[in-house]
């Protein structure tokens, strides 16, 4: 199979729609990461997503819709707090879980009675979703467990020959996956942290819980159970207070002839004195936006990535630390 990488225009959108309507899959950009798209009504297409990625079939998918889509076709009820959150944050990097009407394929939610819905803000994503005008089930467009893709090239590197089309919308601005929020209870509950923090949600909804996954439980959201985001080289993660140990390890490995790179924020990079740096940036938004890009860059040049956690741990950094621990911990 030839994999085409095309800018988003009427020609590529027509190609994408044709694939989607005949049970095919294509990749498309969002503001967080690139997604691997299938018609959420079409079980054969959804199963193809799991097969292409090598994704476990008990790990549910998120359904993407355009901003004008009528959610009453998919869900039974939207609580008042969810309406407030939608007004505050959507379109944007927030996925909201509702009770399902069972109109989409059961393969999407892996047997759950809920459906996770997202309305991305990326202009190219909105054009694609409006053009196909069906709910799109889409996990990240990479091989399972590998680093999530934030450029069309990242998708091509993983899925060349496996999918027919990648819609190129440039580098994703957000950099980590959406926050997933359970909206089936009396108050919202964060299932997966992301760019919309628990504090931001509580400020709008009044309060917000945070779910802790326990072994043996059925997965309620992507990103809760399996190893994710891992580069194809050795990794180790140090806490901010142990950064001197990270610097020592870098120097020791370098003397042994190991090609080691330090991955850290700009402040730690300047303290380290190490020449081989994967610099994540100066603030939490830059760090989130650069994390996957630097992991992909690192695996191409390093035998060992030595990651140092940022000092800031709250807000958006909760989501960043979740990914760092799964990638390097």
Structural class: alpha/beta
Report the CATH C-level class of the largest domain: Alpha Beta
Helix content: 25-40%
Kindly give the count of domains.
2
Main β-sheet, spatial strand arrangement: 2-3-7-4-6-5-9-10-11
CATH superfamily of the largest domain: DHBP synthase
Record field, number of beta strands: 15
Task: Extract low-pLDDT stretches.
Answer: none
| Amino-to-carboxy terminus distance | 36 Å
Count, helices? 11
The outline comes out as globular
Order of helices and strands: EHEEHEHEHEHEHEEEHEEHEHEHEH
CATH topology category name of the largest domain: DHBP synthase
Q: What amount of the residues lies in strands?
A: 15-25%
The second-level CATH architecture of the largest domain is: Alpha-Beta Complex
Average pLDDT rating: 94
User: Rg to the nearest angstrom?
Assistant: 20 Å
Describe the largest sheet. Answer: 9 strands, mixed
């Amino acid at each position: 199979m030839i994999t085409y990488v095309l800018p988003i225009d009427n020609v590529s959108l027509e190609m994408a729609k044709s694939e989607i309507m005949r049970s095919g899959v294509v990749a498309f950009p969002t503001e967080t990461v690139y997604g691997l798209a299938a018609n959420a009504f079409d079980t054969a297409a959804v199963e193809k997503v799991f097969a292409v990625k090598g994704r476990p079939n008990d790990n549910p998918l998120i359904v993407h819709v355009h901003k004008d889509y009528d959610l009453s076709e998919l869900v039974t009820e939207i609580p008042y707090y969810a309406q407030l959150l939608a007004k505050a944050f959507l379109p944007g990097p927030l996925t909201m879980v509702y009770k399902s009407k069972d109109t989409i394929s059961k393969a999407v939610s892996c047997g759950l009675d809920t459906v996770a819905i997202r309305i991305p803000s990326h202009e190219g994503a909105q054009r694609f979703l409006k053009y196909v005008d069906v709910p799109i089930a889409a996990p990240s467009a990479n091989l399972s467990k590998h680093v999530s893709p934030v450029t069309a090239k990242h998708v091509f590197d993983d899925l060349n020959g496996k999918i027919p089309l990648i819609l190129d919308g440039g580098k994703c601005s957000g950099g980590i996956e959406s926050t997933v929020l359970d909206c089936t209870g009396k108050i919202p509950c964060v299932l997966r942290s992301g760019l919309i923090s628990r504090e931001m949600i509580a400020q709008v909804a009044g309060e917000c819980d945070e779910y802790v996954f326990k072994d043996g439980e059925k997965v309620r959201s992507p990103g809760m159970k399996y190893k994710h985001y891992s580069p194809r080289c050795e990794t180790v993660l140090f806490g901010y207070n142990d950064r001197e140990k990270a610097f020592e390890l870098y120097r020791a490995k370098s003397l042994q002839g190991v090609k080691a790179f330090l991955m850290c924020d700009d402040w730690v990079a300047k303290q380290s004195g190490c020449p081989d740096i994967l610099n994540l940036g100066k603030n939490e938004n830059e760090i989130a936006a650069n994390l996957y890009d630097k992991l992909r860059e690192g695996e191409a040049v390093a035998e060992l990535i030595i990651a140092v956690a940022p000092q800031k741990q709250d807000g958006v950094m909760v989501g960043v630390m979740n990914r760092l621990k799964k990638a390097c911990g």
